[in-house]
Amino acid sequence: MLRYTLMRLGIFVGCLVVVWGLVYSGLAPRGLGDSNGLWVVLLALVLSAPISFVVLRKERDRASERIVRRVDRVKANLEANRTMEDTGDDAARSQGQAQGQTS
């Protein structure tokens, strides 16, 4: 997951540099008034999102598979704990009933 995040950040930074160069060379509009910095960041975000979606598809799928495996492992552990609690509870109840019948 960290690898995907770093790759996505790298694509954003690359787009930010390209947009900044285009804006300051006059090939892209400068924004309105003092909003130039915000304009550059937003334009870089808009450009980097579809690029990341296409370029990082395989890495995103790998990260997704790791997350699914981790969630499945946690679910299995929770189910095992729940089963263990049910078994212990059933044993305690049957022991209590057995003691109640002998009294």
Brief overview:
Helices cover 87% and strands 0% of the residues. The chain is mostly helical.
- Whole-number average pLDDT? 84
Number of contiguous helices: 3
Summarize the biggest pleated sheet: none
Distance between the termini: 61 Å
Give the strand tally.
Answer: 0
Strand content: under 5%
| CA gyration radius, whole angstroms | 28 Å
Helical percentage: over 70%
Low-confidence stretches: none
Total number of domains: 1
Order of helices and strands: HHH
Sheet/helix structural class: mainly alpha
> Could you say which overall geometry the principal axes of the C-alpha atoms support?
rod-shaped
InterPro entries: DUF4229
Protein name: Membrane protein
Organism: Streptomyces toyocaensis
Keywords: Membrane, Transmembrane, Transmembrane helix
Salient structural properties:
103 residues, mainly alpha, rod-shaped, Membrane protein
What is the fold's blueprint, element by element?
Elements: H1 2-25, H2 36-55, H3 57-102
Helix pairs in contact: 1-2
Written account of the structure:
The protein is built from 3 helices and no strands. It has one domain (1-101). The mean pLDDT is 84. The protein is an all-alpha fold and 103 residues long.
